[in-house]
Amino acid sequence: MYFSHCARRLVSLLCASLLMPAVMATPAATDLLPSGARTGLLIQPLSASQPRLVQQTGDYFPPASTLKVVTALAALLELGADFRFETELRSSRAGTAVIFSGDPTLSSEDLTQLLTQLRDKQGKDIDGDLWLDNSAFNGYERAVGWPWDITGVCYSAPASAMNLDGNCIQASIYTQADGATRVFVPKHYPVQVTTNARSVSKVQQKSEHCDLELNAGMDNAYHLSGCLAQRKQPMPLKFAVQNTELYLKRRVYALLNQLGITLHGEIRIGSLPQDAPSQQVAIHRSAPLAELLDKMLKKSDNLIADTVTKTLGRRFFLQPGSFSNGTEAIKQIIFSRTGISLQDAQLVDGSGLSRNNRIRLDTMRQILHYLWQNDAKLGVLAMLPVAGESGTLKYRRSMRSDNIRGHIRAKSGSLYGTYNMMGFALDDKGQPDTLFIQYVTDYFPNQRDSDSAEEAPITRFENEFYRALINSEHKTSNAP
Asked: Which residues lie in coiled coils (predicted)?
C-alpha cells in the first residue's frame, strides 16, 4: 500500500511539473528512495526554452559514466568524426621502433600484422634494439579518484599510450570437490595467476562473510583468496593489466618468436634515437572516431573515453597527453565551440570512473540541448543506447516494460551509491521530444537477500520516473 501511494504521488508530481515553469520539487518526489539519497532531476520538452521540472538536492553531482557524453562532444568538435589512432613502425640505422598513439582498440592481431610487414620488408633479423615508443602520453595511467579495489578488473584498465587487447586478460576459476579452486589462464598471456580461495557452499559463504578477493601486483602477478560459492561451470575472470610496459614487452618478445624474427638487441621503452633519419615500414590505423565513440557510449567503454581524453590534451596543448591536460582541453574546447562553460566542473578523467568528478545539473542540460540542436552534424544521439534494446540499457530492469522499451535514448552512469541516467524521451516516430537528467547519489538502501524477488528502490523509482517521462498525454501538453 505504501509503495502504491508513493508511486501515484510521484507520477502526479511529475505530471504537474511538466505543465508549469521550472519548480523545486517537494520531498514526496523522492519517497521511493532511501533516506539520505541526494537527487538531481530535470525534464525539459525540446519545444520549451526552460525545464518544466527541476528538482535537486545540492548543486554538484558525480556524473559517473554520463560524463562520456561530454567527452564525445569535445572529441567530435576537436578531432572530427574521421580521426583515427595510428600505430606506426619505423626503422633507422639506430634501431626499429613501434610508435604508439594510445589506440584503445589495438589488438595482438594488429601488432602481429605490423611485425609481419617488418619481416617481409627487412628480413627475419632486427639489428639493434626494438623501441616501444610511449611518448604520446605521460603522467598517471589511472586517474586520481579511481578506487584501489577496482584497479584489478578490466573496466578500470590503465589508459596507456601502449594499449593492447584492451589491457585486459581473460581467465576462469573452477571450484573443486576438495574445497579448493583452480585458475585457467590461456598460455599467450604473459602473467601469473595463483589462488588459495576456498570452494564453499552459498550458506557457508554468507555465514562467514567471505567473498572472492583479488590482489593484483605491478609485476602482472595476480592472487585470488577468500571464498567462492561452489558452481558447476567455471566463473569467467577478467584482470586488468597492471604494468603496461612489462606486459607489452613480454607480448612483443612472444610475437617475434612466433614470427621467426631474431632480435639482436633488446626491447626498450622510449623513443628511437634521433642520430639517424628513420623511415616508415608499416602503419595501422584504428576505426574512425565516430565508430569508437559509438562503442564508447553504447558499451560505456572507459578505455576509449580516457585515451580520447588524453589525445585531446595532446592535440590541444601540443604536448604529451595526460588526464590533467586532457580534462582541461575538454573544458576549453566545449566553451570555445559551444559557449557552454564547464569551468566550475571538477573533471579528472573522461570516463567518469573517478569519484572526484563533479558537475552541475544545468551544465548537463545545456550539453544535451546542444547535442540535439546539432545532431545533424554530430550524430551523437544515434550513438546512445536505446531503452530495453541496445547497449547498457538492453537489460536494465527499469526499461524492460513495453511502455518504456524503445522510447528512451540515454546514457547511464553508475558508481558506488550513484545511479544516473540522462538523454532523451522519444515520440511515436522515434524522434527526441524531451530531454531529461536523473542523478541519484548517496543511495544506500537497506541490504536485502540476493535471492529476494523484491525490486530495489532505485528500480521502482526509475520505473515511475520513466513512465511519467514518456507518457503521451504529457507530451501533448509540451507547447510553451
From this structure: none
Compute, in degrees rounded to 10, the torsion defined by CA atoms 416, 418, 424, 429. Answer: 60
Look up residue 346 and give its DSSP letter.
Answer: B
- Asked if residue 148 belongs to a domain, the reply is yes
- Which residue is it, cell 510553451? 480
Nearby residues of 25 by Cβ (< 8 Å), 6 or more positions away: 13, 17, 41, 53, 54, 55
Indicate the angle between helix axes 67-78 and 302-317, nearest 10 degrees.
40
**Count of domains forming the chain:** 2
Cell numbers describing residue 277: 633519419
> Same domain for 273 and 379?
no
Q: Are residues 257 and 372 in the same domain?
A: no
DSSP-derived pairing of the beta strands 192-195 and 198-200 = unpaired
Domain around 282? 85-286
Q: So which residues are the catalytic ones?
A: 65, 68, 300
Q: What is the pLDDT of residues 206-248, one digit of tens each?
A: 999 999 999 999 999 999 999 999 999 999 999 999 999 999 9
Q: Does the residue 480 lie in any domain? A: no
pLDDT tens for 393-430 read 999 999 999 999 999 999 999 999 999 999 999 999 99
- Give the whole-number percent of the chain exceeding pLDDT 90: 84
- Pick from 349, 326, 347, 300: nearest CA to 61: 347
Separation between Cα atoms, residue 121 and residue 111, nearest integer Å: 16
Residues 116 and 202 in one domain: yes
